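Dear colleagues,

As part of the handover before I leave the project, I'm documenting each prediction I ran so the next person doesn't have to rerun anything. This entry is a single chain, and its sequence is reproduced below.
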Amino acid sequence: MSFPTIWTAIDSTCMTPPLMQLYLDRSRMLPLDITLGTKTRAHVLQQFVDRAPQIRLLSFEMMPRSRWMALSERFSISALPALLGLWISVNTQAESGAPAPDPALFPHAFNLRHLSIDIFGPTGPIWSHIAFPSLTSIHIDFRGGYLRREFPAAPAPPIAMLDWLLDVFLSSPLLEDVHLAFRTLVTGREDTHRPVTLPRLQKFYISCSPTPVPLLMSITFPPTARILARTNVENLPIRDEMLSLGQHLSPLVSGSNELSFYVSETSALFTLHFKRDGETRVDFQYYGTYYCILLGQVLAFVTACPLDAVRRFGIGGRKVEMEVTNDQVSGVMRNLINVETLTLKNSTHLLHLLLPVIQDGRPPCPRLKTLRMDGDQEVPHQEFVQVARARAEAGFPLQRVVLGTESFKKVASELRQFVEDVGVWEDL
């Protein structure tokens, strides 16, 4: 944000009325940052309303929806030419079925740049259409009061969040930062894939159930944007949808030099990362247990993406869940023509995919130099040596192999016949 260097901040949740009055008197014509709470008194509120043209930031701290309505309606007819940031935090636990707080109650905030809405508890129909043409960032956390990493077992009310979001995006071409978190993301229209272009977008975060794919497919992202998407595996889109999404997001991952997909060893989390020079371009995170199904669908996404710039590739995780078919992984490896470093975590069953192809004698990952094996896994002795020998004889030798301590003791001496350097994982 570009703000004046001097302003007056007044927080009615922790300041006494005399102190707030003193701040107002001394502020004169300075911009005001106002925080309203449940117990904000009427005469204090009226003074804020009278100074509405000076308000730069307006924050409603955790309060019931009915109280928010009573406070916000006092500003609804006021001109707010200086308002740049609007923060709304509402607790609807005691008002099940009530409409969500509606930012459209601020129609005169023509210059609003930052909108943040946090709703704790169930809610009813979604908001009316809003149009803030100067909006550069939007943050909406709308998860019904559940913990941030949880998805409720019971279905949430059918709220057409997707339709509302597309309307917001269409009227906010200057958006740079989007943060969205919902229990549900459904549509009430047939024209779900209305195209939206956000040419200035830099960061896009979405966490929702069942799937963020319809929203992602509706947006044309600039090549420099970064995407982080979270959902639960049980509601993963079908393979064809992931293939289409990969094609749609190809411009974002083009030029990525790091690719990895891992299952966490300690939690039910699956991650897919595309990085360019250490910066994440696309990051998908899935919670759940159906990793066999998930990996196949994620690999479909990956095969639709340009992989010629990838230099580092990693795959693996829990042994049981990470068992996939050869065709699923070999299709990706065939496209990794420039990868130089490969890391396998609990995935020794994929070793044979590095063997030269009989038809043309070329192996997948022909420029592979370094092979790293997770230190916790037992490396099959004969198969490992076979891969190293076959690649060396075909003219595609490995330069460095990194193993766990026990595996190193068993195969290091034999591997050194075909590999320049054999090291221990713990030494990294």
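Residues 291-303 form the longest helix (13 residues). Confidence is low (pLDDT under 50) at residues 145-159.

All the best with the project,
I.
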